[in-house]
Amino acid sequence: MSGTGIGFVGLLKSALREKNISDDIAIFHCIVHQQNLCAKSLTFKHVMGPVIKAVNFIRACRLNHRQFQKFLNDLDTEHQDLLYFSEVRWLSKGSMLRRFYELREEVTLFLKNKGQPVAETEDKSWPCDLAFLVDITTHMNDLSTKLQRQAQYANE
Question: Do both 141 and 103 map to the same domain?
Answer without folding.
Answer: yes
